[in-house]
Design brief:
Elements: H1 2-11, E1 15-17, E2 20-24, H2 25-32, H3 36-45, E3 55-57, H4 60-69, E4 84-86, H5 88-97, H6 101-153
Antiparallel strand pairs: 1-2, 2-4, 3-4
């Protein structure tokens, strides 16, 4: 039960930005029980561990979109600092930078959540594929029915009136 609550809390913090599943520095800091400033300082001290595919800064448009669409980001509205977004690999790398027991436990929970998210995505994609196939079959049948109806309702040439 406890693990489900933790996974639910974590999964609610996972966002999709630039086509990647990410978590923001402020959400990770809360989970790790540290200040966002402390987390970002640790990242700055170990910048080589965080290439662009592990972590990136949000741009102004992305930040504004988050503030507009998510009430929990209201505090970001007046912040001059751009939030960092961490991919799954970047979050894993945070465990090597933040060496507390809390960080280790949270990282394990986050990795499990990302794994469940991937499993869900596989099932969702398979279901979406099946729905597309059903749509295609229905479209083909619908077209055949429409063609058949059109041909059947077309008057025979002998019955057509000829204008003189």
């Amino acid at each position: 039960m406890d693990e489900l609550i933790v996974q639910g809390e974590i999964s609610s913090k996972i966002l999709t930005l630039r086509g990647k599943h990410v978590m923001l520095d402020r959400d990770l800091a809360k989970l790790y029980n540290v200040e966002t400033k402390v987390l970002n300082q640790a990242v700055k001290r170990n910048l080589k561990r965080f290439p662009n595919d592990f972590m990136f800064l949000l741009n102004a448009n992305e930040k504004n979109e988050l503030v507009t669409n998510c009430d929990r980001f209201e505090k970001l509205k007046h912040s001059t600092a751009m939030p960092h977004a961490f991919t799954e690999q970047g979050i894993y790398m945070l465990a090597t930078v933040l060496k507390s027991d809390v960080a280790i436990d949270v990282n394990i929970a986050i990795m499990r959540t990302f794994t469940k998210l991937r499993e869900f995505s596989k099932h969702y994609n398979a279901l979406a594929k099946q729905l597309i196939e059903i749509d295609r079959k229905y479209e083909k049948r619908n077209i055949k029915v429409n063609c058949f109806t059109f041909i059947a309702s077309e008057p025979k040439r002998s019955e057509q009136s000829v204008a003189v």
